[in-house]
Amino acid sequence: MLHKTPGIVLRTVKYGDTSVILSIFTELFGIQSYIVNGVRSSRPKAAKGNILQPGNILDLVVYHHEQKNIQRISEFKPGHIYTTMHVNIVKNTVALYLIELLQKSLRQPEPDPELYHFTEKVFRALDTENTAVAANLPLFFTLRFAAHLGFHFAGHYSEFTPYLDLAEGTYVDLPPHHTNYLDETNSQLTDRLQNIHHIPDLEHVLMNKERRRSLLYAYLDFYKLHLPDFKELHSPPILHEILG
Predict the structure, then answer these.
(1) What is the DSSP-derived secondary structure letter of residue 68?
(2) 186 neighbors 219 (Cβ within 8 angstroms)
């Protein structure tokens, strides 16, 4: 049976002389692997492979069989044409981080339309918003993505709860008796990021590169504490170098 679904390409692996195997986060089926034949060519103008770059949003018509690990695509076309993401080094590096976080966190092929729509919204914003917004998107996405996965920070920053306990996932009144917590400044910034509802407003959350770096690594530590078998990401050092 054929199904129509949008999807975001997460990974492209060459297969044979002209084919690729894609990892795609789809709206209908969650993360899936697809084989696409005849999209690679020695003649660049004839190749369709550029449409299948990681980060690209596609409109797909796919075959789906629950018992199969690799599915097939009947038709595909761009669902969004990027104007800046693939050519702006800051935005492209942010996209690589988002893609890696999705790959490392989405293990099971379970549909999550709400998460898919949020993720697509972030990729579209990455393309259209300025670099000040793009610089804060990794922090914003990492926090919101955790909530979609089922773990998030409870409560809010206040003068009575100025510390964020990463192990417990809540704002507390005193520093915990362990090292997995955020100081007052980082806790306040985190609460502010959590309360942003419109992505363009990220432009107004001002911080330097060291602050962004410490926050992102703290959020990834939060993932390690609450997501079994969460693997170390390779993109953050590159991201911080480019954002510097």
Answers:
(1) -
(2) no
Q: CA gyration radius for the chain?
A: 19
27: closest CA among 74, 66, 59?
59
CA angle 2, 7, 231 (to 5 degrees): 125
Which tokens hold the place of 188? 């306040």
pTM for the whole structure: 0.93
CB–CB of 70/21 below 8 Å? yes
CA dihedral 237, 202, 126, 106 (to 10 degrees): 60
- Of the candidates 147, 154, 133, the one whose C-alpha atom is nearest the C-alpha of residue 200 is 133
Residue 168 half-sphere exposure toward CB, CA atoms < 13 A: 16
Q: Which of 61, 83, 80, 84 is nearest to 72 (CA)?
A: 61
Each residue's pLDDT tens digit, 34-61: 999 877 665 554 445 588 999 999 999 9
